[in-house]
Amino acid sequence: MVKVIIDPGHGGFDPGALGPTGLREADVNLAVAKRVANLLSPSVQAVLTRDGDTSPGTDVNTDLQARATIANGAGADYFVSIHCNAADSPAANGTEVYCYKFGGKGEQLARAIAGFLVPALGLRDRGVKEANFYVLRRTVMPAVLIELAFITNTVEESLLRSPLFQAKAAEAIAQGIRAFLGISDPVNGGNEAPSGEELPSETPGSGGGTPMPAPGPFKDVALDRPTAAAIARALERGLIRGDSDGRFRPSDPLSREEAVLLIDRTTDYLLAKVKAAGINIDE
């Protein structure tokens, strides 16, 4: 049986990158990795480098070394490390997958995973890239490192926090691994949640096993809705609000009173930006 190491990045002393509202990368990585391992079973032997908020090492250097040592010592066939991206700019966004060098099975595995993950998440495709990451360089088997989305981006942090989004990411990663390995049976071995967890709700009438679309900024605005990004930006800027149930009701008509409120909020937002730039204008 093929053995795949699933490596949830960070953990224990190292929370990884932090989102604007405090979401920890280590927690997202672990949640997605556990679902991937569960989905791959029983046709693939999936081994986690950690299954709780712990670290294989005692500091950053020994932690990375320990992850490679676990994979090499286990005689694994492939290594898949799961992370969330981070950047100084809060505008940075998208999904990318890394391999050590192009031209081998690592690249092939990375492209197989990206081929499922990018369309499943619906975020910007940042491509498949080479990188000299320690866990890619020091593992003796083909290895990839996945950056799901930018935890430092307000919109993508909210998605990464969602169990539905995490489930969609996990299923896409598992599909990519299975496709690369030539395993034709569908991803259905992980319908049972890992111990102590609950699976997210499913679409009514779906027959089970298919997660709902990842939520957007409101309960009734799915990530794959064409206007989801614009609605999320308007919400972040304080221009719009949802109802008491957390819904936006995007198809409802706009009343004259609501139009006035939207214009007023937009004006206040723009004036604040202008003043912050040191420009004085008459209001």
TrEMBL record:
- PROSITE patterns tied to this protein: SLH
Where's the SLH domain?
A: 214-277
Ranges in coiled-coil conformation = none
One annotated GO molecular function is:
N-acetylmuramoyl-L-alanine amidase activity
Q: Where is the composition biased (Low complexity)?
A: 194-204
Keywords (A to Z) from UniProt: Hydrolase, Repeat
Q: Which Pfam families match?
A: Amidase_3 (PF01520), SLH (PF00395)
Q: SUPFAM superfamilies, from UniProt?
A: Zn-dependent exopeptidases (SSF53187)
Q: Has keyword Hydrolase? A: yes
Annotated stretches, region: Disordered: 189-220
Which domain of life does this protein belong to? Answer: Bacteria
Q: Which GO biological process categories is it annotated with?
A: peptidoglycan catabolic process
> What protein is this chain from?
N-acetylmuramoyl-L-alanine amidase
The species this protein belongs to is Heliomicrobium undosum
